[in-house]
Amino acid sequence: MSIVSYTELARSFENELGTPARAVRRWAVVLSDNTLDGNPLNTSEIFSTITDLANFGTATHPSHTALKFRKVTINERFGDSPYHVEVVAEYGTVTDQETLAPTARRADWVFESQPGQLAALFYYEGSTGNDDKRPLVNTANDFLEGLLAEENMVRITIRKNFAAFPTTLMGLTNFLNNATYATCAKHTLKCVGVNSDFTQEVWNNAEYSFWATEIVLQFRQSGWPLLIPNVGFNAIVGGVKRRAMVFDFENSEYVASPGPVALNANGSQNIVGQPTILTRRVNPDTSFSVLGVPPTDAGWPSGGL
Length: 305
Fold this sequence. Notes:
Elements: E1 3-8, E2 12-16, E3 19-31, H1 43-49, E4 68-76, E5 84-92, E6 108-114, E7 117-119, E8 122-124, E9 133-135, E10 148-150, E11 153-162, H2 167-170, E12 176-177, E13 189-203, E14 206-219, E15 226-229, E16 231-232, E17 234-237, E18 240-243, E19 245-248, E20 253-256, E21 261-262, E22 277-280, E23 285-286
Parallel strand pairs: 12-23
Antiparallel strand pairs: 1-3, 2-3, 3-5, 4-5, 6-11, 7-10, 8-9, 11-14, 13-14, 15-22, 16-21, 17-18, 19-20
């Protein structure tokens, strides 16, 4: 088959509030006389001849430049003639992701706020400001146990396609960030799960096989290490662990404390001071840079996963 000539027909354009704009161009293509003699239609020749069809997904409409070439339809026997073909090109909104093969698309980040609770161990002193953080005690410096505080968390879901199985990302599960990442302070992000599914997709008339992967991070403002009040029933006295004692004024003697007492950093009993909060990290930490460049205020980066 060979193309003898082609003519562009009338164009159309439609736009409606709340609906993406759509523009259509049509061509009538005339085929050579030997089309019926074992020389069938060759669509690639149509694309190479009508140059406006060459850049699928990126070419803009000649009049409505905000719209890009996103669909083409080829109808044989135009006007019931075996020597004529109708070519229809549709223009509309095209995203950058749509013009890329599955494994070339950037990572998709989703941030979702979620309710949560944690043990109430400290409070902020004063009506304003966040610098004076004190343990949650009563006026006798006894630690108040069993109280809960609301602390919303942020679930961060990162979706990306990989040509090979993402072994390195799978190893992030249960790890904390060892440095500030995505504006989140050290040890406030935890990788709570990595899911990967082998997927196949046909894109631009080619089949792609890849691992559709989802990485889930959980942000906790107070951090993921355990915050434990430095209190107990025992204390270190002269290098030996002994029962913490309090003075019984009624009987004028020291007796074993009926409740936990505040301890110093060396394990000795803190007689009059407030208990401190011990930080104990139970999850390993690592660099989250393997997740790429997160979104920024300036817009989506060109790098990343």
